[in-house]
From TrEMBL:
<comment type="pathway">
    <text>Lipid metabolism; fatty acid beta-oxidation.</text>
</comment>
<keyword id="KW-0808">Transferase</keyword>
<protein>
    <recommendedName>
        <fullName>Trifunctional enzyme subunit beta, mitochondrial</fullName>
        <ecNumber>2.3.1.155</ecNumber>
        <ecNumber>2.3.1.16</ecNumber>
    </recommendedName>
</protein>
<keyword id="KW-0276">Fatty acid metabolism</keyword>
<dbReference type="Pfam" id="PF02803">
    <property type="entry name" value="Thiolase_C"/>
</dbReference>
<dbReference type="InterPro" id="IPR020610">
    <property type="entry name" value="Thiolase_AS"/>
</dbReference>
<feature type="domain" description="Thiolase C-terminal">
    <location>
        <begin position="181"/>
        <end position="320"/>
    </location>
</feature>
<dbReference type="InterPro" id="IPR016039">
    <property type="entry name" value="Thiolase-like"/>
</dbReference>
<dbReference type="GO" id="GO:0003988">
    <property type="term" value="F:acetyl-CoA C-acyltransferase activity"/>
</dbReference>
<dbReference type="GO" id="GO:0005739">
    <property type="term" value="C:mitochondrion"/>
</dbReference>
<dbReference type="InterPro" id="IPR020616">
    <property type="entry name" value="Thiolase_N"/>
</dbReference>
<keyword id="KW-0496">Mitochondrion</keyword>
<keyword id="KW-0963">Cytoplasm</keyword>
<comment type="similarity">
    <text>Belongs to the thiolase-like superfamily. Thiolase family.</text>
</comment>
<keyword id="KW-0443">Lipid metabolism</keyword>
<keyword id="KW-0012">Acyltransferase</keyword>
<dbReference type="Pfam" id="PF00108">
    <property type="entry name" value="Thiolase_N"/>
</dbReference>
């Protein structure tokens, strides 16, 4: 909207309250209540009420499910991990890496953009409280969360549901300087992609990354900082394998060769959604600002942000450090 000249200054953000998810009535009960609302006479209302059965009161339990397939994302992650032959140990090792790096970043004062929040009736939350480095032994004791008993996705190697909010201030460089602001970074380029929402629901970063690099005229070697959304450890590892596979590029992406996997020394080095949590509406801003802060801290120029999303969507964005 800024590029199109429709806006000068935009605040973009989102809020998610996963600790108090609305629980719906059953479909039968909802239909009856809607019909009851249109009933004109007392007789019509009583006739409808008389049709209500005990099973109408059974609630629909909340689930993080893909709307086009009704499959929970955990099941999708389990199938994706199996398709790419990613073991439970590999997933636990990556999750442990995420928590360990997040703890190091938190203690080192890297996560400076967290705003304290007073929870009514409780203490003020001053930092992300889901960071819990454990051990592979302890993580190995947890049972599969979705595909039982043989699945590999567990609570330890999945992003946890949490409350959160975020906001980011956007404007043109000219407007920012006129108002006396010093930008953190440029939004250099971005793309959205989509793929099969069943078998490739979580592979958005694989499809989006080469497109955004080509659009910007850059290569993987030009990128100094990678920030990918960690929905599940299996999802991240599957994307890294797919990005590093000529066979996958040729058979599924219509490309002659692979784009290559990001080197881990540049990848999510301050932790990620596995350790910081994933309040859906707030994660995007966190990824972008973390990339900007890492570029400044590490002296890099380009950061690549990528994420998967519901509906088989994927997104990738290039941010560039603003000259210091």
């Amino acid at each position: 909207m800024i590029a199109a000249g429709q806006c000068d200054v935009v605040v973009a953000g989102g809020t998610e309250l996963m600790s108090d998810v609305p629980i719906r009535h059953s479909r039968k009960m909802r239909k009856t209540m809607l019909t009851l609302n249109r009933a004109k006479t007392l007789g019509q209302k009583l006739a409808l009420i008389s049709k209500i059965r005990p099973d109408y009161f059974a609630p629909e339990l909340p689930a993080v499910a893909e709307f086009s397939t009704s499959e929970t994302m955990g099941h999708s992650a389990d199938r994706l991990a199996a398709a790419f032959a990613i073991s439970r140990l590999e997933q636990d090792e990556y999750a442990l890496r995420s928590h360990t790096l997040a703890k190091k970043a938190q203690e080192g004062g890297m996560l400076v953009d967290v705003v304290p929040f007073k929870v009514p009736g409780k203490e003020t939350v001053t930092k992300d409280n889901g960071i819990r480095p454990s051990s592979l032994e302890q993580m190995g004791k947890l049972k599969p969360a979705f595909v039982k008993p043989y699945g590999t996705v567990t609570p330890a190697n999945s992003s946890f549901l949490t409350d959160g909010a975020s906001a980011v201030l956007l404007m043109s460089e000219e407007k920012a300087l006129a108002l006396g602001y010093k930008p953190k970074a440029y939004l250099r380029d971005f793309v959205y992609v989509s793929q099969d929402p069943k078998d490739q629901l979580l592979l958005g970063p694989t499809y989006a990354t080469p497109k955004v690099l080509e659009k910007a005229g850059l290569t993987m070697a030009d990128v100094d900082v990678f920030e990918f959304h960690e929905a599940f450890a299996g999802q991240i590892l599957a994307n890294l394998k797919a990005m590093d596979s000529d066979w996958f590029a040729q058979n599924y992406m219509g490309r002659k060769s692979k784009v290559g996997a990001p080197p881990l020394e540049k990848f999510n080095t301050w932790g990620g959604s596995l350790s910081l949590g994933h309040p859906f509406a707030a994660t995007g801003c966190r990824l972008v600002i973390t990339a900007a802060h890492r570029l400044k801290k590490e002296g890099g120029q380009y950061g690549l942000v990528a994420a998967c999303a519901a509906g088989g969507q994927g997104h990738a964005m290039l941010v560039e450090l603003y000259p210091q």
